[in-house]
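Quick one - inputs below.
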Amino acid sequence: MSEPVISAKSLTKRFGAFTALNGIDLEVYKGEIHALLGDNGAGKSTLIKILSGVHQPTSGGLFVDGKPVLFQSPRDATNAGIGTVYQDLALNPLMSVTRNFFMGRELYTGVRPFGVLRMKEMDEITHAEMTKIGINVSDPAQAVGTMSGGQRQTLAIARAIYFGAKVLILDEPTSALGQKQQMEVLKTMMRVRAYGNIAIIFITHNEVHSKLVADRFTFLALGEVIGKGTKASLASEDIRHLMAGGVAMADLEHELAAI
Amino acid sequence: MSEVLTTAKTPALRTEASRLVQRGRLAKLIRSPEMGAFVVMMVVIIAIAIASKGNAFNPLGLKNNLSIIAQFGIIATGACLLMIAGEFDLSIGSMIGFAGMSMTLMLKWGLPFGLGPATPMSAFFITLIFTLAWGWLIGFIVVRSKLSSFIVTLSFLFFLRGLTEVCFRFINQSTQVSGLPNYKESDWFASMFGGESFHWFYNLWYTLGGNVNQLGNQWVTGFDARVVWWLVLSGIAYFVLMKTQVGSWIFATGDNRESARANGVPVDKVRISLFMLTAFCATIFAACQVFDTNTADAAKGNLKELEAIAIAVVGGTLMTGGFGSILGVMFGAITFGLVANAVFFIPAIDGSYYRVFVGVVLLVAVFLNESVRKRITGGI
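Output:
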């Protein structure tokens, strides 16, 4: 097995007296989809915020390509090749697809910030990148507001990859979408996986989705890793069990019946 | 799970992209955001031309109308860019009063700190430093405090107006300055603001047989210089907004500030700069007024901030930011200017109908803009 592209070793994060993460280990390999599962409050959000530079760990280490890194800001994480696609996607609905794609990183001729936009070139790149990832944007000048949720998700992913992400963190990318659009996003993830050089961290609540696409799983509960493994090593029943935070279904049934 | 996907009866050729209907050039033109403002403008032009029996567009009428149109246009351009970035500036009118006060007091009583007598150029540039500093301060407070710009600029509306009156009384003993030398005759810098422009237009009109007064001589010699300022400012604003990187940042800042920030757009710098731009526009407005009339008083610019916002909205600028059009603002300024001046050409009507008109048009414009926004965002 090659070296993980990003890994965390005994990562701990405390907010005052509250321990959000307690000694998390995580290894993410390129060309793989790594599902990060856990109930609300399990520490998923804190973990991805540390990976994307929003929070700094209290103790423990982060490693990119085996080298220790310290992210002081989201910008540091982006520069290290970690692209985070948040649930709100950081898209502007009234602006065109192209202007969103290049937002804050426009191509221009002349002196910043009054440089003249190279609109045609940006349109072409946007169209090409979106097509590559499986969505044919007929008009790059169309407003993002007219796109479906799945298309927006894809736009945000294509943008992160184009600007150099080697690790993509997708925060519940399927949660707010309809069935068909969810499949759209899963297909997009599989296409990115097929590039072979990009790792995806897939945060989800959805057991079915994670089993459809993920190569490797990490389960969190109450700030700790309660299970991990490859798709092959985990039986379906384990996944369900671990997703419920380690509580056996039988116990749940028992408790429910007692009420 | 896989059977579900394969048995889906969606024809392979139909994708999400094909749900967006492609429209022709004409249809795109009709649905463009400026269209509403354009239609209103044309209706007003035709109505006023008929009601004034053409007097509103004779040589003198055209000059007087364009003069007020340019005034409106100059401040509305700044207000529009700021609104696209998602902020308001209610201090524009008071800033006009402040700038007029500052320039005329310097011209009458000399430069501050005993630096000797002022020239129109030194009075203008020192005033510009003051107003840009106010603009920066307003922007800085809005950005740092995260308060709504509505409240911050409302406080500056009162603050600057009061300060203007206090300065007038303290230095000048009276809240108005009049009887300044007619600088525009002697000073090229003053004539850039208070003089005339487009002489060739009226010369050509005279050569072609029109533009003749009762004595048989050439009647009107040129438009006010502020028309040039309006056209130049609008041209630059259009170019910057539509074609440059900072234009993209202005849209992004107003559309969704947090997402713009997350993508590396310097949203705070954009907003502070635009508050400085509205202060700049107010200063240009004041300079045109001061060097045209050689007077100033403490009430100058009153309510202009609301007219600027109204024109921006009628021109298709969204109250919520993220969308707007300089061309629409030009149409809006023409509409407002013509109606504000209509009473001079149509003596039968009451001048207060101007505000009745503004109220009605504004409300209609807001409804129209809302439908534009829904159309762009697909009803979200």
